[in-house]
Design brief:
alpha/beta; five-stranded mixed sheet; about 30% helix; binds zinc ion; 13 strands; Metallo-beta-lactamase, Chain A; about 300 residues
């Protein structure tokens, strides 16, 4: 299916920008920390339709009666110092990433734009432990939930880092909690974690980009979203099952062949479930399709 047509089909339910917190729950909000435009070809191997990659550093806030969570947190205020702790290839790539997000805000400010206080969070859920997803957690105090495999990997990285800055891992170590996928099979995935126990937020393993990368389904009436972290960088790559561009793949994919297979699996998933809005973590267009504009929140129920 062509990208434009798919995007049109995914323009789903109305959005309530700046909806009053607590009035309608659960609710999900697009939280954006930074945005930048990159060449389309950087967004995956063999990209043809996307001329410009509208890249973003974003997260998603879930407001829920059982406690609010923030999924992914962007870069830390010390991001440049952190990437300078990494080996040469990852350091050079990381310096470029941090520079591309020079004009950025951090979770406390970003959450405030959606009417949320950082202290209101019950937890922070991280798709994977890269500095551009986990670093912003340093500006908050809530527990940081990663997959059990990712937690182990973070610990190992403190001794021999490749892409997790040791200082970041150290500073977060006491707050890290490993998620057990104990909720059974879900949507074709052999394992899952139904976070609230009501199917509104379901976490599934997506190893490859990192050992414990995970995806998150957000299920709201009239809207279903699948956050795929960095399994692909862009929607076109997700729909076509494309591996990452060489420069991104070599600097960021932990097991590139497994990451490639996961990208292909996402494309198969999309063909089987075209009604579910897939959001690669760095594709601004994908968030815009699902949420409209940054800091907008979806209503849980159809609006009157
Ligand atoms: Zn990333």
């Amino acid at each position: 299916m062509r990208l434009a047509l798919t995007l049109a089909l995914l323009a789903l339910v109305p959005i309530t920008a700046g909806a009053a917190p607590g009035k309608v729950i659960p609710q999900v909000c697009w939280i954006e920390y930074s945005a930048t435009d990159l060449p389309g070809a950087m967004g995956g191997q063999g990209i043809t339709e996307m001329k410009v990659w509208h890249s973003t550093f974003s997260g998603v806030l879930v407001r829920h009666p059982k406690g609010d969570i923030l999924i992914d947190t962007g870069l830390s205020p010390d991001a440049l110092a952190e990437v300078n702790e990494l080996p040469k290839n990852e350091r050079t790539f990381g310096q470029g990433i941090v520079k591309s997000a020079e004009s950025r805000i951090y979770p406390p400010q970003a959450l405030a734009k959606a009417g949320e206080g950082g202290a209101d969070l019950k937890a922070i859920l991280i798709t994977h432990a890269h500095y551009d997803h986990m670093g912003g957690a340093l500006t908050l105090t809530a527990p940081v939930l990663v997959s059990a495999a990712e937690k182990q990997w973070i610990k190992a990285q403190t001794k021999s880092p490749t892409i997790v800055p040791p200082s970041m891992a150290d500073r977060l170590s006491s707050r890290l909690q490993g998620i057990q996928y104990d909720s059974g099979a879900y949507m074709g995935f052999a394992q899952s974690k139904d976070y609230y126990g009501d199917h509104s937020v379901v976490v599934v393993p997506l190893p490859g980009h990192t050992p414990g990368s995970q995806g998150v389904f957000l299920n709201l009436p009239g809207k279903r979203v699948f956050l795929i972290g960095d399994t692909t960088d862009t929607l076109e790559a997700a729909y076509r099952g494309l591996p990452k561009s060489d420069v991104v793949r070599s600097a960021t994919d932990f097991v590139p062949e497994l990451a490639d297979r996961q990208a292909a699996a996402i494309a198969r998933f999309h063909r089987a479930h075209p009604d579910i809005a897939i959001i690669p973590a760095h594709d601004r267009t994908a968030y815009a399709v699902a949420f409209g504009q940054p800091f907008a929140c979806t209503a849980a129920a159809p609006r009157r």
